[in-house]
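Appendix B, example 12.
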Amino acid sequence: MTLSGFDFAQPWALLLLPLAALPLLRRRGDSLVFPTLAWLPDDRLGRLMGFVGRALAVLAIASTVLALAGPGTPETTVMRTGRGAEIMILMDRSRSMDAKMKPSDWRSIDPHSLLHQMDSRGQPKSEAARDLLSAFVERRPDDRFALMFFSAGPMHVVPFTQHDAVVQAGIRAGGMGRGLSDTHVGRALVAAIETFEQRAYTGSRIILLVTDGGAHLDEPTRKRIREGLKANRVALHWLYLRTLNAPELGAEASAPPPAAEGDSMEAIEARNVYHAQESVPEVSLHRFFMSLPVTYRLYQADNPDDLAKAVAEVGRQQNFPLDFDERIPRQDHSRAVFAVAALCCALLLIHRSLLLRSWL
């Protein structure tokens, strides 16, 4: 039941509201018969005390009935404006993410002992990513985050929200158990893009892909990703957690050198090298991303320090005006009304004690 901006969780209790008129009824003990009252002085204080007592009793009963009805303000939606972005965190939860990253000083370590140093001092990639993403979310209160894990398929964890505590809980949940062996980046990207399709465009949008591997995507999947990112105006940022001996990605050309009659040996060799690199999943995925019609940025991280710098760079890139609707949940005011009823009862006790003292 809604009434002028208020609603009642238990509107049937309002049927008891007429009980508040009981203190106004005259009681037999209130009337005494005297031959004459002309010689008595006017008792204004007595009349005032009687009025105050009845008013407190009426208010106490009415407040109790209203509190039992569960008054409150209904759920509303408020348009807010901030600076930030709508960020979909798409995080790899496959078994390879449980492997350890290189130590921060890995460049000064003997290559023959690097693997041993990683096992003894390295931090798991998934753990390092979760720690930094948690700090990233905490530093950006105006952003709206969504969280999705993926392995063999996408796992929706948190829909778009500005409630950081929910996102933080979802990030922590990613550390439970061990990852699966399969990884399907294409299916996860398509699912992440679909989360934007039913949302009104209100500002900057990005998908933050966090993974240590690549993929060879078939042409239908590439088409869905390309068209979905363009239609929904979503930028793509890839946090590439580079594994030991994995390829180092850079600004490679997104297309092989064109063939022409009379090409030199250098041109032919360049095309052969390009096609040979295309067989590497990470390189193939990176080159596909470079061909997308939307903004794409690669952040390569070999160790936790590189990852921290990459996350900080993402934060600097995404600081634009953002309009969003925030749902304000229903606010229950029963406690405040119960407090008014309790106060009236306390004042009634004081009022009664004052009357008894005056009679004595």
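The two ends are 50 Å apart (CA to CA). DSSP finds ten helices and twelve strands in the chain.
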